[in-house]
Hints:
The chain contains 19 helices and five strands. The protein is mainly alpha-helical and 499 residues long. It has two domains: 6-359, no CATH class; 404-488, no CATH class. The protein has a five-stranded mixed β-sheet. Helix 15 crosses helix 16 (339-358).
Amino acid sequence: xxxxxxxxxxxxxxxxxAALPGxxxxxxxDRLLLAVAAAYVLAQLLLVGPRLGLGWDETVYVSQISAQAxxxxxxxxxxxxxxxxxxxxxxxxxxxxxLRVYLALLSGTGLYxxxxxxRGLFPTRVLAVAGALYATLWVTLFYGPSAMPNQWVALGxxxxxxxxxxxxxxxxxxAAPWGLAAGAALMAWMRPTDxxxxxxxxxxxxxxxxxxxPAAALLGGLxxxxxxxxxxxxxSYGGLGARLAEASRVQGGLGWNPxxxxxxxxxxxxTLCRPCSGALPAPLITGWWFALALLALTGxxxxxxxxxxxxxxxxxxxxxxxAVPYLLFIGYAAPxxxxxxxxxxxxxxxxxLIRLVTAPGGGLRPAAATVAALGLTVHLxxxxxxxxxxxxxxxxxxxxxxxxxxxxHRVGVRPPCLLTGTEAIPVAFYAGCSxxxxxxxxxxxxxxxxxRAARTTPVAALSRPGGPPPPYARGWTRVxxxxxxxxxxxxxxxxxxxx
Length: 499
C-alpha cells in the first residue's frame, strides 16, 4: 500500500513491498507479477498452441453464442458464464486460434489481478512464486486458453479470499467489498455449486466476525452470478431442487463416492477419467500433488510461527471445501475440477518454499536451495511431458472430428443439418449442424423427432466403426469412416437413399 496504512492492520511481514518508500515497492512488485502473468500467456500460446481444436465441452459452451453452429444441448450442471465470456469472439468469428489467443490473454490478465489483490498480505516474492507454481501446472496451462469454467472459479476464489481479508483489515477500504462481490459473481457465473463450496469458509468468517458490508457483498455477488442459473432452473427444469437433482443424475449420482485415486489416475493427462480404471501413474507423475499439500501445510506452520495464521488458514479452508465434492462425492475425475484448490494452495506453498530456502541455517541454506532447485526442475520437466502428451492426444481426437465433418459435407450433409448418435455434439459443431439424441445424458428429442426431421433436413447418425446404427437409423445408408461410421437418412428432396 502506497501510504503504508494497511501493513500493520494486515500483519504484513518484513520484506513486503508495502514497507518500501514511496511507490518504488509497488512498481517493482507490479512488474514482477506482470512478468509472471506474461510468461503464463506466452507458455499457453507456445506449449498448447492457438490451433488446438475445441473439445467436447467447449463446443457445448461456445455453440450457445456462436457464428459457427446452432446451440448444443445444455445439460443441468452447466452454467452460461463461459458462453458469455467467449461471446465477444464467438458471436462474430469462427476462428479457433483467435478464441484461444483471446482466452490466453484473458487468463493471464486474470492471474495478474488475482495475485495483485494479495499485495500486503504476502510478500511480493511469495506472490510471484505462487503464480509461477500455479501457472506451470500442466492442467493450468492446458485449460488457460480453453473455453471451460474451472480456471475462472479458481481466479474468482483467489479474489474473494483476498478481498475479504482486506475488507476485514480496513473497514474504510471501499474497493475490497466490490472486489469480493465481483469474485463471487465470477465464480457463480461459471459454476454456481462450486461457488457455494468455495464460499463456505468465507461465510463462516463473516458470520463469526459480524461484518455486514462484506457479507452483503459476498452474498450479493453469489446471487448476481447465480441468478440466471436459478431462473433457468424454474423455466426449464421445474425448480431449483429439480435442476439440482437432474445435475446429480447427469454426474452419476452425487453421494459418498471417494475419488482420490481417480484424481491421481487423471494426473497422467486424462482430461476426463470416467470410468476411471487402470493402475495409478508412477510416483514421478503424482508426486507434485502430495508435495503441494505438504508445502501448504508447512506454510501454515510458517504463518503460525510468524503469528499471522489468518490468511493462510482461510486459503487452506477454501481449498479444502472447493476440493471436497470432487474428492468425496463424485464418482469420476477430471484434473480441471481441482484448479480452485491448486490456486488457493499455491500461496501458502510458495510461502513455505521461500522460507525453507531463505531461513537462517548456516551451512544448511545452500543445501536446501539446491534440493529445492532440483525438485522444481524435475517438477517442471514432468509437467511439460504430461502437457505435451495431453496436447498431442487431444489434438488427434479433434482432427478426427474435423475430418468427419469434412466427410459429412462431401456426402451432402451440410447446414442446416442434424447429427445424432456417438459424439454427435462435437462433430455437429465442427460441421455446423444441430445435434440431438433421444437417450443418455444429452437426451433432447425422441426417435420419432429425428425421423420427422429427416423428412426436411439432411440427417446423419454416427456410430463406432463397424458398430450397429441407432435403432431409428436402421436401413439408412452406411458410409464407413476412419473414426466414426456415418448413417445417412434418405434425401429430404426426393425421398431416395443418400449416396
